[in-house]
Every structure is written in structure tokens, then in C-alpha cells.
Amino acid sequence: MGILDSKVPSGPLAEKWTKHKNDINLVNPANKRNIDVIIVGTGLAGASAAATMAELGYNVKTFCYQDSPRRAHSIAAQGGINAAKNYQGDGDSPYRLFYDTIKGGDYRSREANVYRLAEESVNIIDQCVAQGVPFAREYGGLLDNRSFGGVLVSRTFYAKGQTGQQLLLGAYAAMNRQINRGKIKSYTRHEMLDVVLVDGKARGIIARDLVSGEIERHSAHAVVIASGGYGNVFYLSTNAMGSNVTAAWRVHKRGAFFANPCFTQIHPTCIPVSGDHQSKLTLMSESLRNDGRIWVPAKAEDAQAIREGKLKPTKIAEEDRDYFLERRYPAFGNLVPRDVASRAAKERCDAGFGVNKTGEAVYLDFAAAIQRYGSEKALTSGIKNPDSETITKLGEEVIAAKYGNLFQMYEKIVDQNPYKTPMMIYPAVHYTMGGVWVDYNLQTTIPGLYCAGEANFSDHGANRLGASALMQGLADGYFVLPYTIGDYLSDDIRTGPISTDHEAFEQAETEIREHLQRLLNAKGKHPVDYYHKKLGKIMWNKCGMSRNAKELKEAIEEIAALRKDFYENVKIPGGLNEMNPELEKAGRVADFLELGELFAKDALQRNESCGGHFREEYQTPEGEALRDDKNFKYVSAWEYKGEPKDAVLHKEELVFENVELKTRSYK
């Protein structure tokens, strides 16, 4: 076991990033045109990095498995993006955003990275407005803000319920400008299958053209992984079905440490599972918790009657409702952080108060907000003594203006009108705080290999606050990586083009072909999804919202056995040198089957509860997470040694000089 060097600059927290930018090496503009950079993934982190680095003069190659960068899963981020602009005048500041993020992550993130993120947040909004992102505005024309979980201020900028999509279109437009200039070569429908190391440095990738099946070699002076998170290890998650861990896992197998895999976020407001036929889950934005109140029946017999279809929620009197988040956490109410809200919902459902047929759902109710907004709208519209029907109509119009597309999406999926009857929601796997370990420069343990956005572990600790994913992705891509990668590339100005004829490329390509052929040779009886679903059930049942030592040990053994069966009995039709979606899926599931075991191993060694990692053995009498700062105040970074069971743990000790470590309280 080794101690990792995070390369955090010295000096006061608020001066570290400025000092670092002044101290690091730069690349002359005339030399940038001689340097190639590969970026894998074109979501917000990848697209913003590609556009910015191409604008600076580097030659950029981008790779995505989708048919267009616009299809990246970043478009699914609905609720907003945080920035410490203090437009509301409610006391916000970069320090308060920093503090909320550290606290929200249950004190398991690196102070310097989080403060830099808070610092750069204010620049992101200006950048996106300049690109034409249509953020919501107040009547006077100023950008509007709303609040999100875990904070007491309004700092979330939004574009209705499509913030991620609008931000990605802004980054995509910036990318397109550089594609048109010839500074970005865009490779769509390509999947990265390996990173190539030459003399210990990342110098290229092996990719598969998903249309022709051709295996290709691509070289560069540096490689950036921006391929998103690994939530689909659970099979059912809010991620796009194609989201995968392959790029991040393949670099891990080449020597990049993988950090905190057990830190996975369960989002509290998702449409509940309806049956075994489902292939993914749908997220209802956290922004809905601004106006929606979460409740279950206070009487078990009422919950039972609802489950049996004998009682409608609208018939339950106010005094017979349990607004359990408001009851348990009066200071934050429905806007507690996601991990806290998710566990509270699970507790109520486990106690028998769930409200759908499976007993795994709670209500998100907008009736009170509709009445409140309707009364206000009537007053501002000069309507005197409005009747209840008018108030309801006006209130629904206000709610529709704020959340209309989300309500429409819910109605299409569930076939219930959420304006008239409360939404049903339940926690589901959403975001992954763990990922490839990076230092302050976003460089992995492999020189020349960088990692940005959700694919790295760096900023969110054990739980991500809502609206911070978009913030991290764009901060990394627009404002961090373009500086820090230059420090590394300044040594490559005389290197010249990297040849793909090098034996390292030959060896990597051969290994990939052998791996793919091994999958095709199995000739078994079960399709790929059979194994993915089985893995997902193990992960959800034993590594999901709560974990314990006994079940984690079982999960490790079960996943290893499932992986062995997969290689012997998976059935993949078609061949290698052709379009073969089943082969694509098989490669991704093979990686999930390794990651899942490491996930359970990481959760087993962390004998504490923190954020999204809730060990049943470590909780307060009130059922809250019980951290162990004496023994587990570190990042767990795993080194690949052949099998997940053989992975070696390295620790990055976390130092807190600017915030006091204390038990999180939202009461």
C-alpha cells in the first residue's frame, strides 16, 4: 500500500488555484498546433474540453459511441447548474458553495479541488450565457435561481427542465465551430477499448468502429477520459442504457488507480420500478422538491388500502399524512441532500407505508404549491375574490411554466396526471462519486492520461449535491484541464507525431482482438442482458441503498461466480468485423462484472457510513450515517493486479484545514 500525492499547491485555500496557474508551464501558441490530444467522451466535460483546447490551438480527436455528441447522457440532467453568483442576495459566496459541497459529501472530498470548483462556478455561467444558453430569467431580465438539496440559498441556474440539454448544445456548438476549422476530428459511433502506453506514458487508444466493426489505432501526445459514470453496473439506473464503465475500467487495467467505487448516489425522486420488463429508470428532477412535498400515509391501513386500489391519495386528510422529511429535518425539509432523502423514503417503505403495488414508492405532491402560486397569481393579475377553480387553474399554469416538460414526461410514463394526483417516486441509482483517481491537475496515475467529469472521483466525496454534476463537468472542461494539461504537454513540443506502428499499439490491438474473440467463442445459451440483470440484482440487493458485511462478502463471491459463468455461457450472435451491438454490450458487461466485485470489496473495507455509502452496522440511534473520521478519512484508490480480489489499496489521506469535521445535521 502506498500514499498518493495529490499535488495540491501550497498556500491559503483561496489562493491555491491562482498561484498554481501562475506557476505551471505553458505551451506557446505556435507549438500547440504540433500537439495532438485525444478526448474520449463528448458529454459536458469532454465537449467543453475539446472545444476549449481546439480553440487554444491543439489538434483534438474526440470519440463517442453515440451517433452525435448531442446524444451524450449530459442531456438528461434536468434541474440546473450551481454557481455562487449570489444574484438573490441571500448570502451566497464561493466559500459557502465550497462548504456546502464538502459537508454534502460527508467530508470525504479534497478541499482544494472543491474550492477551485466553487471559484470557477461563477465563470461557467458567463461562458454559457455568451454561448446562448437560454437560462430562465426573472421579470426584470436577470437570470433566475432556485434552490436544491443540502443548501440554504438559491444558487441553481436552470433552463426549465432541460438544463443539461441546453448546456450540451452550447458546448456542441463550440465544438462544431472547431470541427469546421479542422481543429477537431470527431469520431462518432466509435468505442474506446484500450489505452496505449509508450514508455509509460499515455500515447493513444485502440477503438472499434461500431458501424464496420473495424479495430483502429489512434495516437496522441495525451489522452483525456471523459466517459461518464458507472451507474449501469446496477442494470436499472437513471443512466442512458449505453452508459458504461469501459473506458475508465480499461485505463484502470493499464495502471490508473480506481478510487472510491462504493460511493454511488441513490437519487430520491425517480419513477418507481414497475416490473421485470424495464431496462432503465426515469429521473424526475430534484428541482421538483422546491415545490413538491414528500409524504406517505400516517396510518399503515391507509397505505395498505392505497396499494390495493381501494383508496386514492387525494382522499387522505391533511392530518393523516406524514410529511416525513419535514418532520425529521425541519431546517431543510424536503430539500435535504439526496442520500438523506433516499434513506428516509426507504425507511418509510420498509416500515409498510409505501404507496404503489410493490410498496416501494412515496408521494411527491404539488397541491399546496398549486394553491399558493394560484393565489399569488390571482392577486398580481388583479382578480378579486377568485373561486377555488380559478386559483387551481392559475396555480397549474405557474407550475407548468416551471416544470411543464417534467410533468408531461411523468404522465406519458405513468399515465396519471400529476397536476391532479400526487407523483409516485422512489430512490434509484443515479450518479457515481467514485471513478478514476486524479491529482489536482486531473492527471491519473498514468503520465499523460487525464480524467474529467463524472469519470473521475475528485469533487463530490461520498454524496453529490444536486446541480453540481453539470458544474463539475464544465469547470473541468472549460477552466481546469486546458491549463493543467499544458503543464504536461510543455515537454512534448519537440516530440513530433506519435506513430501507431509502435509495438505498444500492435500489442494492445492484439490483446483487444483476443478479448473480443474470447467473448464470441463462448457459444453459450444466455444473452448478454441475462448476466447484466443478474449482476444488477446482486448489486441492488447487497451493495445498494444499504450494505452490511455479510451480504457484501456474499456479493463478492456471487459476482465472481457470475463472471466465470458469463465467459463460459454467454451467447453472442454475429462476428467481430461487422456491426454487432451484442458484442458491444458483452464487452461492457464484462467490465461491469469486474467493477462490481471491486465495488463490493471497497464497501466491505470501509467500516463506516458516509453519504451514499450506508453500512447498517454503523448508524446513529436515529438511523443517520455514522462516520469514522479517525480510521477512514481517506480516498481509497485501488491498483489493478489481475483480479478484483487481488486489487491493492492505496490511500490518499484527506486533510481538512478550512472546515471543521462534524456530524452532518439537516435538522
Report on the structure:
The protein has 667 residues and is an alpha+beta fold. Among the domains are: 269-429, Succinate dehydrogenase/fumarate reductase flavoprotein, catalytic domain (Flavocytochrome C3, Chain A, domain 1, Alpha-Beta Complex); 503-628, Up-down Bundle (Methane Monooxygenase Hydroxylase, Chain G, domain 1), CATH 1.20.58. 39% of the residues lie in helices and 14% in strands. The longest helix is centred in the middle third of the chain and has 27 residues, at 388-414. The protein is globular, with a radius of gyration of 25 Å. The two termini are 39 Å apart. The mean pLDDT is 96.
Features:
single chain; 667 residues; alpha+beta; Flavocytochrome C3, Chain A, domain 1; Methane Monooxygenase Hydroxylase, Chain G, domain 1; five-stranded antiparallel beta sheet; 18 helices; 39% helix; coiled coil; oxidoreductase
Give the overall shape, derived from the CA principal axes: globular
Overall helicity: 25-40%
Rg for CA atoms: 25 Å
Determine the number of helices (DSSP H or I, runs of at least 4 residues): 18
Rounded mean pLDDT is 96
Give the beta-strand count.
19
Quote the CATH topology of one domain.
Answer: Flavocytochrome C3, Chain A, domain 1
CATH homology group of one domain: Succinate dehydrogenase/fumarate reductase flavoprotein, catalytic domain
CATH architecture assignment name of one domain: Alpha-Beta Complex
User: Strand share of the residues?
Assistant: 5-15%
Distance between the termini: 39 Å
Q: Strand order across the biggest sheet? A: 5-2-1-9-17
The CATH class label of one domain is Alpha Beta
| Unreliable stretches | none
Largest sheet: 5 strands, parallel
Overall SS class: alpha+beta
InterPro entries: FAD-dep_OxRdtase_2_FAD-bd (IPR003953), FAD/NAD-bd_sf (IPR036188), Fum_R/Succ_DH_flav-like_C_sf (IPR037099), Fum_Rdtase/Succ_DH_flav-like_C (IPR015939), SdhA/FrdA/AprA (IPR030664), Succ_DH/Fum_Rdt_flav_su (IPR011280), Succ_DH/fumarate_Rdtase_cat_sf (IPR027477)
Protein name: Fumarate reductase/succinate dehydrogenase flavoprotein subunit
Cofactor: FAD
Pfam families: FAD_binding_2 (PF00890), Succ_DH_flav_C (PF02910)
